[in-house]
Amino acid sequence: MSHVEKSLDYTAGEMMTVTAARALENGTTCFVGIGLPSEAANLARLTHAPDVVLIYESGTLQTKPEVLPLSIGDGELCETALTTVSVPEMFRYWLQGGKINVGFLGTAQIDRYCNLNTTLIGDYTAPKVRLPGGGGAPEIATNAGEVFITLKHSKRAFVDQVDFITTLGFGRDGRGRDGVPNIGKGPTRVITDLCVMKPDPETRELVVVSLHPGVTAEQVQEATGWEIRFAETLESTPEPSARELEVLRALKDRTAQAHAGQ
Amino acid sequence: MSHVEKSLDYTAGEMMTVTAARALENGTTCFVGIGLPSEAANLARLTHAPDVVLIYESGTLQTKPEVLPLSIGDGELCETALTTVSVPEMFRYWLQGGKINVGFLGTAQIDRYCNLNTTLIGDYTAPKVRLPGGGGAPEIATNAGEVFITLKHSKRAFVDQVDFITTLGFGRDGRGRDGVPNIGKGPTRVITDLCVMKPDPETRELVVVSLHPGVTAEQVQEATGWEIRFAETLESTPEPSARELEVLRALKDRTAQAHAGQ
Amino acid sequence: MAEILSLHDAVARYVEDGATVAMEGFTHLIPFAAGHEVIRQGKRDLTLIRMTPDLVYDQLIGAGCARKVIFSWGGNPGVGSLHRLRDAVEKGWPHKVEILEHSHAAMACAFEAGAAGLPLAVLRGYVGSELPNVNDQIRFIECPFTGERLAAVPSVRPDVSIVHAQKADRAGNVLVEGIVGVQKEAILAATHSIVTVEEVVDDLDTHPNACVIPGWAIDAIAVAEQGSLPSYAHGYYPRNNRFYKEWDAIARDRDAFTQWIEENVMNAGETA
Amino acid sequence: MAEILSLHDAVARYVEDGATVAMEGFTHLIPFAAGHEVIRQGKRDLTLIRMTPDLVYDQLIGAGCARKVIFSWGGNPGVGSLHRLRDAVEKGWPHKVEILEHSHAAMACAFEAGAAGLPLAVLRGYVGSELPNVNDQIRFIECPFTGERLAAVPSVRPDVSIVHAQKADRAGNVLVEGIVGVQKEAILAATHSIVTVEEVVDDLDTHPNACVIPGWAIDAIAVAEQGSLPSYAHGYYPRNNRFYKEWDAIARDRDAFTQWIEENVMNAGETA
Q: Does the reported pTM lie above 0.90?
């Protein structure tokens, strides 16, 4: 993790989660990936977006977990859901059926055209590191209205070309969605612990649009595996509010407590 | 209705229902058509086949109605079912999925090759009589292990060639199932108020194998729209037992009583 | 997000002349009240989709609302024919109605495919049936893995679907229970949707895997008490079988039908 | 018709060396007890199918039962990698294991298609993904109505499926409740099926649209109390998250793994 200077008492991870949470508007239906996306989505629900609809691929529709799930299918998700459907129904009716506004994903690798790799590092037939695989991501990325991505910034994660396109961003040349019918907008923002990036409307190459407080452009470049572009008018990401930090910390405390017992 | 001489006190309709009921073995899973098939299938369940599994296309799985349903989706069917599934699930998982041993159908018209017509009398573009249509029958007839058919015998119903093949028996030439993969055996018996017929194992033409007590071959021929064949050793259909008649009459009484109030 | 509207306003807002409309209900929970409101508002040129068009479609057809009917079994269940449908198809009264017919399996799969966002449904169906001769929307494809010939039909994607359900909560989440038919699929497959309910409650009070349709997947909720009579609502009231039988005589005769509609629909309020 | 057997006898009768086996459970109701019985009986050359192979498949792979794994997400949920799966794929220990990978959407559809008796599933999927480059079972077809290019995958039709559920009644009808995953589809798609349950009861005591699998669609029921631990059973016991975290260290090391299997599976009875 790079050094980040901050005016207030919060971590870079908290900055990332709060920024990711703010991206979710109230009333959005969000297909939530486990881990960082789930943390951000629930923070949104507990702060500015009480009516955000959270959907997990385990079949839990409109769930309101008190504590963060460790897995995509924790009992907490079912117990607090409006209803729970089968996994085929989830992927067919709710995701493919076009009911999802935002797919919220994490990833192991991401490249300049926002393609995601969660399959493996190295060559497919002789992998250096075997990763878990695609899971829901390939179709979340194409069937959701748009996609938010959140992950920690590092040269290992932000690579010029992913080793394998598990999940389409904009393809190897940025043109992978052109002319494809019945497909969502794809990634519209990437939120890290350093900055916020968006794809260039023309070339689809990721552009840093906002630096988190205290973060420099050099730090972002240092943590990125290609020559990253910056927007002409680079914003400063708004800091977390006291309330956001309070709610996030309480959520993580409740979660730690709940999981410690098991 | 043709005249039928009987040694006991039962009607030709009761003879038909009891004979149709006896065709269903205990433990069979049966996809039940409304009307005569439903009456026969429930009589089977209430007599020799307590573990017959009755499935109606409305989604009611393993149902045990106290009274006969008027429609395919009466509340009684749901209230006495093991569970009730959606109609797409019923047709996809339970029928097409190969879980049904016997499809039990009625029909408006049937021909010598056991093709069924429930679409219309006359020409499709200018029908003399418009009938309700296919409903579940086209796929029941091909996806169930085998098919039983029950209807009243008349020249209007038993025609040389159906006006329209809604539902495959053995096709216009008896060869309609030859070489078709993933298809059931098709009709294996037809039970009327006069006799029992089965398709010839070679030609697939319907052959009378059993005459109900008191019924003559001439009566059957008179009620059939083509020159019907009779088996070399023509059986006499066993008569209903006192218990079968008692159970059937009680069932119909309960049904009349239940429906009169509504 | 579901808005709780009067039945009048829901139908006025979402059912346009010329629209493709699915009012579903497999014997159970048939949206009669909504169908009557469509008749009262004099909607025209509708393409009516339904697996089992029964009395409410007979009424809509006889009242002149329909241009086309897409269906798989058009009868009065347990009673006989739909005489208004027959009169329209056979004799063109009150005007000619086009029909496109399928089997139940194909329509159920087509609703499922519509809900699943697919352009087509694939099934082991129509083998040896002559329905493909008279319905050019039935085609056949070859499985790329096995070479098997399979039937294909276009998915159902109505402009508006209307269903009746037991209850909604105040956020517009709807519980459907009992014989659920293709109601959920009809709602999810449609561009717009209206759900009439017996009542709006604070809490649906249900179980983990109940058939609940979230309010954000529905456009309008309208309360219509006994809104599916003479059909029934599991847990609320039974089917009025007697009316189904009586309908046969009413519908056989154009004048008797017209008078019935006048008295029971046109001159009745939203509760009809 | 479901027969109530001991877990030993059910596995011995229905799981043959070389079989294609789906042990399903989407985080919830994972059939650990059954998986351990498969390990104890030394089954070999299995093709293991599962959307989310987790610890029980890691254990089966490390114990040498698997020849091939078909999956869509192979990790320890919320923790990290499946080290036994990785060791087999990357280093061939205890022997080389072939993998065939899909996305969740495709596998969910493939289970659905298997249950529906179809040879293939069709989906709007794999657009722009490189998975079709490494999995020749992913193909594309053209919609005969719209011309749209759609993905197709073969349906899943296991020789035997094994799932865990809350309870069965004495006729072998099974209730699955909570996160139901693809369990029903796995059972219906398979040639044979085993369901382990927490208990056998007189009455399932459930609601009209519960996920109940009839006994006549199942081959064997075996009672396995706490049979999904360290996974969980909604209404019975929570997930042992701590074990999921501990597994990471156990599975990283071949010796630690071997010792764990020896102590907790091989030398344990059917209750393990």
A: yes
Question: Which residue in B6, B101, B93, B86 sits closest to B44, CA to CA?
Answer: B101
Q: Which residue of C has its CA nearest to B174?
A: C128
Alpha-carbon span D49 to C249, nearest angstrom: 58
Mean pLDDT of A116-139: 94
**Could you read off the pLDDT of A88-120 as tens digits, one per residue?**
999 999 999 999 999 999 999 999 999 999 999
The residue in chain B having the minimum alpha-carbon distance to the alpha carbon of residue D189 is B97
Residue A170 has which token pair? 């904009």
D197 beta partners: D165, D223
> Is the distance from CB of D39 to CB of D61 less than 8 angstroms?
no
- Residue D58, judged by CB atoms within 10 A of its CB (0-12, 13-18, 19+), counts as buried
DSSP string for D228-245: TTTSBBTTTB---HHHHH
Residue A3 has a pLDDT of: 47
DSSP conformation letters of D64-93:
T-EEEEEES--EETTTEE-HHHHIIIII-S
Which residues of chain D make contact with B88, given a CB cutoff of 8 A?
A: none
User: How far, in Å, CA of C124 to CA of C103, rounded?
Assistant: 12
Q: What is the pLDDT of residues B216-229, one digit of tens each?
A: 999 999 999 999 99
Indicate the residue of D143, D146, D178 with minimum beta-carbon distance to C208.
Answer: D178
The rounded distance, in Å, linking the Cα atoms of A206 and A114 is 7
Whether chain A has a CB inside 8 Å of the CB on C127: the answer is no
> Are the beta carbons of A84 and C117 separated by less than 8 Å?
no
Chain-centre distance for alpha carbon B93: 22
Q: Residue ranges of the alpha helices (H) in chain A? A: 12-23, 36-46, 75-79, 87-89, 137-143, 217-222, 242-260
Catalytic residues of A: 57
* Cis peptide preceding D31, ω within 30 of 0: no
Residues with Cβ < 8 Å from C146, sequence gap 6 or more?
D119, D120
